[in-house]
Structure formats: structure tokens, C-alpha cells
Amino acid sequence: MKTLLLKKEEVSRLISMKEVIGTVEEAYKAFSGGQVDQPPYIGIHLPSGGEIDFKLGYYKGNEIISMKASSGALPDNPRLYGVPSGMGTVLLFDARSCALICVMDGSLLTGLRTGACGAVSAKALARKNARKITSIGTGNQARMQIRAMTEVMKIEEIHAWDRHPESLSKYKADIEAEFGIPVIMAGSAKEAVEQADILITTTRGKGSLVEASWVKPGTHIVAIGTDMKGKQEFEPEIFRNAKIVNDSIEQCIDKGETFHPLDRGIITLDDIHGEIGEILLGRKPGRENDEEITIFDSTGMAIQDNTTAYKIYQNAIEGNVGTFFEFIA
């Protein structure tokens, strides 16, 4: 049999953000609909200080098993080894035979599907008249979130804050050049958060960056940065009277932002409204009034990699992109 090889440049032109939003919606529905077998992901912390994570998932709907290996936090890689500081590789297996059908670069995949999740949550949980976005953090994922949000809403202005002024200035220049959306550089996190209709956090925070008193009624929060133990971006008190929605309750109460208010006794498991997939399936309501504070806590799931990578694979086959090689004689 033949296996398809897709390089980074090929992957980058094989899928649009609009398509990724669709694959992430499919993933959430499949997960909450009981169509997914997704073991806990494995993370290996390396002596160098970096890490490599492995996420594995099987989706009954497409009969595909995916495995993604992603590494990060290795800043000396370019100098020492001539490779990027963070890399990713995705393997796709036909679940009927367990044959390897595709090997693709996965360095873009995580950013794309994580960016799309914020847009999916905004459709279900943000106010219909939301126009102002606040971005706490101005790195690559902050940009990806805006790329996805522009697909589902009209953004009038963005308020941004970052600990590093040079990163903030570059974010403003890049976003205004790409989208023509005015970016207001805030003098403090508080100043930015107070303006938000939708608040997006994409930092590597180790403590509460956002305080409860800053968040106005009706705000939708997209909590992206906390995806492993030890990370935190929000004062846990924010969760007390909010509508809390997780991508995976099992993951979020263990390593997501939801862990912190649970750990402090501010909320109980019964206070978690549900998973985003349950809302998309119509089993639970999304936003119910304009005064609710809604929180979408996303830790990222293998099923998002699965549906997105499979769409890339399908587009490659249809467009005759990539290189086939003999893997099994």
C-alpha cells in the first residue's frame, strides 16, 4: 500500500480557517455524542527543559485513528540542531485495517484548530451584538484567534495587552495590516479587560492575570492558555456566577482553568454547565441572556486534530497534492 506524505508548505495551502471551524465543530459534537475514543494524552518532560506531547484519538464517524506528536519550549534548537523550537507530526491510520495512510507536518495544525475553537465558542456563547474583542497575550495564537473570529463575527476594535511592549506593538501592526481592524494598546490588563465583549487569553500564565471585578456583565471569555497543571490566567472568583462550558470536562477539571475554582471550593462539579459539544448538539442551551458571563475553557483534544487532519488529507487527495511512498510492501 501507499502512504501520503504532506510537508508543511503543502499543509498550509490545503485548508482554510472556515473549513477548520467546521472540523472543530464536528469534533466537539462527535466527542459529546459518544463517537470518540480518546485516551488521556501523554506528556514527557525532557532534561533540556522542553517537552513532547502525544495525543491519540479514534473517531467512529470517519474511521480514522490519529496520533499527533508535538514538541515545544526548546529555544536552542535552531542554533544547536538547525530545527525549529517547536515541531509537530501527525499520523493518520485507517481504523478498519490500522494501516498508516498519511504522515503530515503538524506544526500548523494545533494553532489552526485552537484558533478555531474560540470562534466556535463565540457562535454559541457570545452576545449577538458583541463587537469588541480584548486579547490578553499577543503571540501567534492570539493572531490565530482573530483570524477565526473574523469568520464568524464583525469585529469593530481590538483592545490588547501584553507584558512585553515590543510584542504588543508588533501585534497591533500585524493585525491592522492583515484585517484593517483598529487595535488599541492598553496600558494595563485591567484597562483592556474592562472593554471586552469577548475576552481571549492566550498566555503561558502561572497566576491570575484577570481579576473578577474587571469583567463586565455579558462578557464571553475564551480561556486558551491553561492547558496543563501549573498554568493559570484567571482569578478563580470569576467562575462563581458564570456559565462554565468546557471542551472536555474530564480534562478541564484536571488541567484546565476550571481546576482552580474547583480546587478552592468556589464551584462544584454541578456548577459546570456542560461541554461545548452538548450545546452544539442542542442538548443544552448556550447563552440565555445578555447579562450572563460565559466561560469557555479549552484544553485541546485529540479529536480536533483528527477531524482537521483528515480534512487536510481529503483535500490533498482531491487536489493531487503530496507525495506517496511505499510504507508496507
Summed up:
The protein has 329 residues and is α/β, with parallel strands linked by helices. It contains eleven helices and 18 strands. The longest helix has 18 residues, at 302-319.
Describe the structure.
There is one protein chain. The chain has 329 residues and is an alpha/beta fold. The protein folds into 2 domains: 133 residues, ornithine cyclodeaminase, domain 1 (2-Layer Sandwich); 186 residues, NAD(P)-binding Rossmann-like Domain (Rossmann fold), CATH 3.40.50.720. It contains 11 helices and 18 strands. The strands form 3 sheets. Strands 1, 2, 3, 4, 5, 6, 7 and 18 form an 8-stranded mixed β-sheet that branches. Helix 2 packs across helix 11 and helix 4 crosses helix 5. The longest helix is centred in the last third of the chain and has 18 residues. The chain is globular, with a radius of gyration of 20 Å.
- Output the radius of gyration: 20 Å
So what's the overall shape? globular
Report the uncertain regions: none
Largest sheet: 8 strands, mixed
N-to-C order of helices and strands: EHHEEEEHEEHEHEHEHEEEEEHHEHEHE
**Secondary-structure-derived class:** alpha/beta
Could you say what the CATH topology of the largest domain is called? Answer: Rossmann fold
DSSP E strands, number: 18
Question: Tell me, what is the CATH class of the largest domain?
Answer: Alpha Beta
**Mean pLDDT across all residues, rounded?**
95
